[in-house]
Known about the structure:
By secondary structure, the chain is α+β, with helices and mostly antiparallel strands. It has helices at 2-24, 32-48, 126-135, 151-156; strands spanning 52-64, 70-82, 86-93, 96-103, 106-111, 116-121, 161-170, 173-181, 185-192, 199-206, 214-223, 242-243.
Amino acid sequence: MTIAIRKKKVRTALAAVSCLLLAAAPVKSDTPEQAARDVLKSMADYVSGLDKVSMDYSSDIEAVMKSGIKLQFSASGQMTLDRPNAWRMTRTGGFADVELVSDGKTVTLYGKHKNVYAQRPAPESFDAFVNTAREKRGVALPGADLFLASVHKELTEPVKEALYLGTAMIDGVECEHLAFRTDEVDWQIWVATGGKPYPCKYVITTKDMDGAPQYQLRIRNWNDAPDVSDATFSFKPGEGAKKVDISAIGNTGIVKPDNK
């Protein structure tokens, strides 16, 4: 009898949650899943349609030790993008102080910790750079997929389940809270309401690793019409900076030990 009562309570609770999610979904959407997909599509159309954008961000990435202790490493930075292939990105944290700049002709990776930099010809687009970094160099760029021209395809192709979870406040901005599930990761995104549906917060949970570590990105000071010029994307090395091969710089911007 006790087990039967508990099962009934669980079913009742799940039904209540389903009702709440359905009630939270926008009127134009029939289900929480369709609502989530609709909001994500509006975000993707808006962001991918911008020629220029700038923002500040902060990020947290978790690592799980063999002992089970979960650690979190934080960084912050700024990004300015002028499509198709000009950008400036910075990232500063306990293990990183790096600047990545493309003027449309040359991409420069500047490791400020060691005052060294490496350069390569610029790709034809920001998308090409992100894809090459991931596929050929094995460099993860969490959050970069939010700014690809193909953002909607990149985000939705692997999705198996989607939920609309209502609204929430992120750093004073009202957002729509969405959750998605894929085979490898679960991820959530908070999209600003109103005429500029930009991503305010993005959380990725890795399911195939012990402790399910997360990556979190928060975006502030969103500007979809920044004042940019050639000087915005010009590289100016620090005094005494040394040019090295790009293989000598880790993705944190620190020279690898065997290249000191």
